Amino acid sequence: MFMLFIISFIIVPVLKCCGTETSTYTTQYDEVDIKEIMDNERLLVAYIGCLLDKNPCTPEGKELKRNIPDALQSDCNKCSDKQRENADAWIEFMIDNRPEDWTKLEERYNPDGSYRTKYLESKHSATSNVDESK
């Protein structure tokens, strides 16, 4: 499956990187309920706006925005399992349910579209495997 980027971002857990090289991002925000954010229009719009520099960010939003480029470049190799799980859930949600917002985030953080491609390939593969098992 594809990793964080995101991007897509958003949200939590926030990936924190110190001025020096670290082996992993902070797990301080790993327990943030990403589903609650995705299910709450007000929170969702606030995080998207933060990532697009359209409105202020929460502390975790600032950390996420600061670390998205590194996470994308490193294929999320500093992410915890929970961070990867949240990132995958976020990306799937955005692509499937908020394609216009996803496009804006993708233009900013992943202009080559590689994470969308990975997601769609993964989704197609999963669908094919389910069909074959029937």
Brief descriptors of the model:
134 residues, mainly alpha, 6 helices, 60% helix, globular
Quick description:
The chain has 134 residues and is mainly α. It has six helices and no strands.
Structural description of this entry:
- This is Chemosensory protein 4 variant.
- It comes from Bombyx mori.
- This protein is mainly alpha-helical and 134 residues long.
- The chain has a single domain, classed as Antennal chemosensory protein a6, CATH 1.10.2080.10.
- The chain contains 6 helices and no strands.
- The protein has helices spanning 34-39, 41-51, 59-73, 81-97, 99-109, 114-133.
- Residues 1-20 have low confidence and may be disordered.
Q: Can you tell me the overall shape?
A: globular
Distance between the termini: 23 Å
Structural class call reads mainly alpha
Main β sheet profile: none
Report the portion of residues in β strands.
under 5%
Contiguous uncertain segments of 5+ residues? 1-20
Name of the top-level CATH class: Mainly Alpha
